[in-house]
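Changelog note: in this version the structure field was regenerated for every chain. One regenerated record is shown below for reference.
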Amino acid sequence: MISKVILTPFQKFVKIESFSGILLLLAAIVALVWANSSLGYSYQSLWQYELGFKTDSFELNKPLLLWINDGLMAVFFFLIGLEIKREFLIGELNSVKKIAFPLFGALGGMVVPLLLFLFLNEDANTVKGWGIPMATDIAFSLAILKLLGNRVPLSLKIFLTAFAIVDDIGAVLVIAIFYSSGIDLNFLFAALGLLAFLYLLSYKGYYSKFLIIVIGIVIWVLFLKSGLHPTLAGILLAFSVPVRQKINTASFLDNLVQITTNIKQSTVSKQPVLCKEQIEQIDDLEDWIAKYQSPIQHLEHKLHSWVAYFIIPIFALANAGVVLNTDMKLDTFLIRNIIICLVLGNSLGISFVVLAAKKIKLIEVPQEITTRQIIGVSFLAGIGFTMAIFIASLAFENSPEYIDSAKIGILIGSLISAIVGYTILRLKGRTKTIRE
């Protein structure tokens, strides 16, 4: 039985991600309506407005859209990096037994859509879009599971979360290897040198948020100038954040008792302000709290709401506004292929691989998870909004026609996947549980 101590933070995480999915949907709808309204010109001009600076020896000038996709999304990837590190060290991916179930699901959800896309694709100009249907949008998919309430077990939500994290690792590797070009080794080695310095500090037990922010910005610029996508800097930077606290629980509690005693002894009246001794004790308490908190957990807690409620909705608002009119040039074959790969590629790939791995006893599936639920979740994995649009913008960077086509395919495919997955998981009736 999963302990309540573990469930409470996870349930809070699901709640945040679920509401984030709702905001994502609203932002996407607003973007589509705005882009196709009489104010559509303002939508396009806003995101193409250039910001930055330029000197004789250095230039950093980008449209607002790219500041979002390259800058704000680096924070999103930083959070993903924190989650990946925590899950591998102390979470749902910290043992072979725990990782096997979501790992096989993620492999099926990445490899089968990829192969299906290559099989269906007949245009050499669109072949670079093979990475689009590979990634699952955890915010949307968890939002669907949230709507189902007690119809699905918590273990299924944990599987979907772990699966999405493994899936994100695959997407990051794809971006790093296949969607970066023209690598400048001087900038890259400088960035890696700074990362090595931060890793050494982490290994020695030293941690400073200020240092990570300052050096992180420099690393981001170096990645940008090196030719690697700068969001990768966010992932690698996250790995430099320590997991362990500087003091253990026993030491913290001892100091907490001492500080409480000191505050009581220094109380001289019922004035609404603190005396000097009490202020000093409160400062000490803040220092001990900072030492007691896990740096990686603290950063996750602080960033999660910002990413879920601001960065991802802004990304959706800036990227989902496809202009739909009779004059626009669209690649209907690319749209069709992405829809098929998102809906059928993920559902067939995940279901087949997981059930086959279960059959030959390579993985253990929790007894409360049924075959129907595995199939339903595999359809939800076809919701590829955030990462899919992000990869599409990289794959077809200089081809607006293909970017718009890819976005339409992603929106339709994700919608179909959400409806089918929700319907399957909502079905009543007895379904045989996956067990021997």
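Spot check on this record: The two ends are 20 Å apart (CA to CA). The first helix runs from residue 4 to 35.
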